[in-house]
Design brief:
Number of strands: 13
Order of helices and strands: EEEEHEEHEEEEEHEE
Number of domains: 2
Length: about 170
Amino acid sequence: MKSFDMRGARVIIGLAGQGWRGDLRADDPLMRGGTLMVPVLSESDFYRSEDEGSEALAALHPAEHVWVEKPDEDAERITAPRHLFERLVDAETPPNRYPVPASEMHGLTGRRVWYWRDGSFASDLRCVTEAFENSNGDIAVRLCPERDWYRWARTGKAPIMDEALIHLVWAEG
């Protein structure tokens, strides 16, 4: 019996004191030689295998080297600290990724974003433009689902994009 399903979970891999790698997806853990291992693959490979209904080659990492990204639903919204000394991290754990209002950030194209709509944040989105003035005179960006973002790179088929007002979008800092 599984305690939770890891298939598709966003994960970070690494070792305390050495470094961290994110933008990865996991599959359900398995036992290999008496060690609990987690299959981990790039987001692009994950979405390709999902689209094609095929298996992707995943690297196996010991479970103790894999950290599952999970937003703290009960925490207050915290934005990224602005000053260097406030941004120092503990090298023993992966760094926190703080949401930053998209209106305060340069280089939005390609960033993972959250979009406030219908009373909650929509996630697993990518920003496909920088901020622009739309036909109504509002400042906006265009967004697409991450799955479509990776499909675009793989197939050349442009995603269907949603226009979002900039003040309703938060980017991963």
